[in-house]
UniProtKB/TrEMBL annotation:
<dbReference type="GO" id="GO:0008355">
    <property type="term" value="P:olfactory learning"/>
</dbReference>
<feature type="signal peptide">
    <location>
        <begin position="1"/>
        <end position="38"/>
    </location>
</feature>
<dbReference type="GO" id="GO:0008285">
    <property type="term" value="P:negative regulation of cell population proliferation"/>
</dbReference>
<keyword id="KW-0472">Membrane</keyword>
<dbReference type="GO" id="GO:0030425">
    <property type="term" value="C:dendrite"/>
</dbReference>
<dbReference type="GO" id="GO:0060326">
    <property type="term" value="P:cell chemotaxis"/>
</dbReference>
<dbReference type="InterPro" id="IPR001611">
    <property type="entry name" value="Leu-rich_rpt"/>
</dbReference>
<feature type="compositionally biased region" description="Pro residues">
    <location>
        <begin position="61"/>
        <end position="72"/>
    </location>
</feature>
<keyword id="KW-0812">Transmembrane</keyword>
<dbReference type="GO" id="GO:0090090">
    <property type="term" value="P:negative regulation of canonical Wnt signaling pathway"/>
</dbReference>
<feature type="compositionally biased region" description="Low complexity">
    <location>
        <begin position="35"/>
        <end position="60"/>
    </location>
</feature>
<dbReference type="Pfam" id="PF01462">
    <property type="entry name" value="LRRNT"/>
</dbReference>
<dbReference type="GO" id="GO:0043679">
    <property type="term" value="C:axon terminus"/>
</dbReference>
<feature type="domain" description="LRRNT">
    <location>
        <begin position="73"/>
        <end position="107"/>
    </location>
</feature>
<dbReference type="Pfam" id="PF13855">
    <property type="entry name" value="LRR_8"/>
</dbReference>
<dbReference type="GO" id="GO:0051897">
    <property type="term" value="P:positive regulation of phosphatidylinositol 3-kinase/protein kinase B signal transduction"/>
</dbReference>
<dbReference type="GO" id="GO:0005886">
    <property type="term" value="C:plasma membrane"/>
</dbReference>
Length: 437
């Protein structure tokens, strides 16, 4: 027993040593785990520091340029609809076309602004507006359209420049539409519809004498640039005449609108080359009659329909050929509604119901001013006749009076001659001086 009691404390001491060793082992393991996690956490910090050093070196260089706007970007003053492919910049008082128009735009409304000048390449954005087909610039105070103003618009089909005070329209304003740099070398424009209605008089008084119809004619005839044009509207421009062969460069033209002008005749306007012309609107002008040369041109176009409403037709003998043509042709739309405007006695009579006997050229009455001139001439003639009669009746007294005047002039001249002879002869001069003494 005592030996067993003596072994008991030794065994307890050995067990305590084992626990102590286990505790130390656990502490060692915990220290190793903590050290491994510390190194792993320190490695990202080192990588971050290494990555921060290049950025500090880059910050010394200038910042890179901003990236281009995304394809769907919309300029601040405008309203955009990507679903409808439409951009509206209406009544924003813009002085130039925004450079950051979205690439998807097909229809651009740019009305009610303050453009003044449309320079060359006004729509030459990067990337190009390859899908823009309809461009409306009406009512934007546009005074000048430069050469190649519509470059880089390969899909442009419809252009509206109406209600602008155009004073300077370049002859090559509509040339091209591709990506070339020289406007004169761009060739044919893709335009099929052009609207130049109600062009306002220029604000600058020095530019008002420039002929707008001449500028339009030059642009239409410029190297066949508008050879693809199908519709042309020139209404409300107070045109009195149209230059010769004005539309010779538009072989594909189908619709021509010239209503609400002041045209008095077609003159030498060549319509024979417009073989595809389908509609010609000549209403609300100042036509009084259409003569044979114009009638032949209109009749030569096979598919043509003409509108001649609201013209002041003068129903006299000069209208005989036109009345006969109206009764036979089907070219004129609503020909039954055409009626006389002059003279007063025939006003509102339909042209197609007139006979040749109704179209007599009566002698025109004398103008009141002409009558007064005739009366004045008669009065002056009577006064002259009376004066001559008085002279004839007093011819003897007048003859005696003329003789008396002649004798008086002769005596006076003889006195001058006598004085001259005395002054010229020295002897007579001394004699006269001695006698004076």
């Amino acid at each position: 027993m005592p030996g067993g009691c003596a072994r008991g404390p030794a065994a307890a001491a050995a067990a305590g040593d084992r626990r102590l060793r286990l505790a130390r082992l656990l502490l060692v393991l915990l220290g190793w785990v903590s050290s491994s996690t510390g190194t792993s956490s320190s490695s990202p910090s080192s990588s971050s520091t290494s990555s921060s050093s290049p950025s500090s070196s880059v910050s010394a260089q200038p910042p890179p340029p901003p990236p281009p706007p995304p394809p769907g970007h919309c300029p601040a003053p405008c309203e955009c609809s990507e679903a409808a492919r439409t951009v509206k910049c209406v009544n924003k008082n813009l002085t130039e076309v925004p450079e950051d128009l979205p690439r998807y735009v097909r229809t651009l409304f740019f009305t009610g602004n303050q453009l003044a000048i449309l320079p060359s390449g006004a729509f030459a954005s990067r990337p190009p507006l390859a899908e823009l087909a309809t461009l409306n610039l009406s009512g934007s105070c546009l005074q000048e359209v430069s050469a190649g103003a519509f470059e880089h618009l390969p899909s442009l089909r419809q252009l509206d420049l109406s209600h602008n005070p155009l004073a300077d329209l370049s002859p090559v304003a509509f040339s091209g539409g591709g990506g070339g740099s020289n406007a004169s070398s761009l060739g044919r424009s893709p335009l099929s519809e052009l609207f130049l209605n109600d062009i306002l008089p220029p604000r600058d008084s020095q530019l008002r004498n420039r002929s707008f119809v001449g500028m339009v004619a030059a642009a239409l005839q410029s190297g066949g640039a508008l050879g693809n044009l199908l519709r042309l509207e020139l209404s409300g421009n107070n045109f009195i005449y149209l230059p010769r062969d004005m539309f010779s460069g538009l072989p594909k033209l189908k619709h021509l609108d010239l209503h609400n002008n002041s045209l008095v005749g077609l003159g030498n306007l060549a319509l024979g080359n417009l073989t595809h012309l389908e509609t010609l609107h000549l209403g609300n002008n100042a036509f009084k009659a259409l003569y044979n040369a114009s009638l032949v041109q209109l009749q030569s176009l096979p598919n043509l329909r003409v509108n001649l409403d609201n013209n002041p037709w003068l129903c006299d003998c000069n209208l005989v050929d036109m009345v006969a043509w109206l009764k036979e042709t089907n070219v004129v739309e609503g020909k039954a509604s055409l009626s006389c405007f002059f003279p007063e006695k025939m006003r509102n009579r339909p042209l197609v119901k007139l006979n040749s006997s109704d179209l007599d050229c009566d002698p025109l009455p004398l103008d009141p001013l002409q009558t007064s001139y005739v009366f004045l001439g008669i009065v002056l003639a009577l006064i002259g006749a009376i004066f001559l009669l008085v002279l004839y009746l007093n011819r003897k007294g007048i003859k005696k009076w003329l003789y008396n005047i002649r004798d008086a002039c002769r005596d006076h001249m003889e006195g001058y001659h006598y004085r001259y002879e005395i002054n010229a002869d020295p002897r007579l001069t001394n004699l006269s001086s001695n006698s004076d003494v």
